[in-house]
Amino acid sequence: MMADYRHILLIKPSSLGDIVHAMPTCAAIRRAYPKARLTWLVKREWAGIVERIDGVDRVWPVEPTAAGWLSQVSALRAERFDLVVDLQGLFRSAAIGWFTGSSLLVGFANGREGSPWFYSRRVPVPELEMHAVDRYLLVAKAVGAGVSGAPEFRFRIPPADHDEVERLLTRFGVIPGTSWVAMNASARWPTKRWPAESFAEVADRLQQDGYGAVVIIGGPEERADVATVSAMMKTPAIDLTGATTVGLLPALLSKASMLITNDSGPMHIAAAVGTPVVALFGPTSAVRTGPYGAGHEVLTGNVPCRPCFSRTCHNALPLECLRRVSSEQVLTAARAQRPLRMVPR
Q1: How far is CA 135 from the centre of its chain?
Q2: For 287-339, how does the pLDDT look when each residue is reduced to its tens digit (9 = 90+)?
Q3: Is the separation of the CB atoms in 47 and 75 below 8 Å?
Q4: Looking at residue 2, what is its pLDDT?
Q5: Which structural domain range is residue 124 located in?
Q6: How far apart are alpha carbons 194 and 196 in whole angstroms?
Q7: Cys staple from 102: which of 84, 187, 194, 269, with CB 3.0 to 4.6 Å?
Q8: Which of 142, 168, 198 delimits the end of a domain?
């Protein structure tokens, strides 16, 4: 007989893309245990996105420091969770799961930093070259929440988010009801960043060819990268960098005709809401963390050293894996995506 869990804790504190990857596991657990109360533990900076994930009953934000995590131990223990799922697979996430006192703590057998020592049930990962979404779903299956159809990415976007996005776009000059292209020209790793001049050329060409406004997005820490792109453009740039919260990204990207992006968190949100993606991949593997599902295009330069999974490039030609991707290749991919979204949302 399958267990009937009633109080479930999902530990996936970061980062943005990884949280999106965990959405189908959350949906599968919710479907298998509809009467359960499902709590998601997440770093406070990403709480806004988890608040908009369907199936989550409570968001449990934590500060990123060790002291911030430890301060939550007594409150988490008082919740008396009967199932704890650790999708992060690191020492800190496994330890906090163990401190809850739950009799069932589930995580990956190949978790890092000694995390498997804390688990009462270890889930084997048959191969490294599988997408993170499918890897997380192995844990769902291990707790009786297997998926028979396509993985589900379910956001619950409040109407207020759509209204705020419309006001924001209108204020920055995007005419309501017209098609526009989102562009994410930065990334946390320097080695994931396609050249600024290439982004600028693509943005200019798309606007000149009638694809609508190109709206550049990003967080406050990415303003310098975006300013570099904007300065190189010959056509007007619409710069929303730092103008939106992370929680608004699902509503914002659901209205774009496509997203042209480096490997980044917004890339995964766009894919989750059904917006076609043209993604530039350098040091990372699209097999493991590319935009999930059909209708997306991943471009990369085929060099022997990739994927290196490194934040520092040691190749004789710096960032050759990205620099080999031409602006014309990206434009060709973008033009192929346009028929997928002819009617603006």
Answers
A1: 15
A2: 999 999 999 999 999 999 999 999 999 999 999 999 999 999 999 999 998 75
A3: no
A4: 65
A5: 7-142
A6: 6
A7: 84
A8: 142
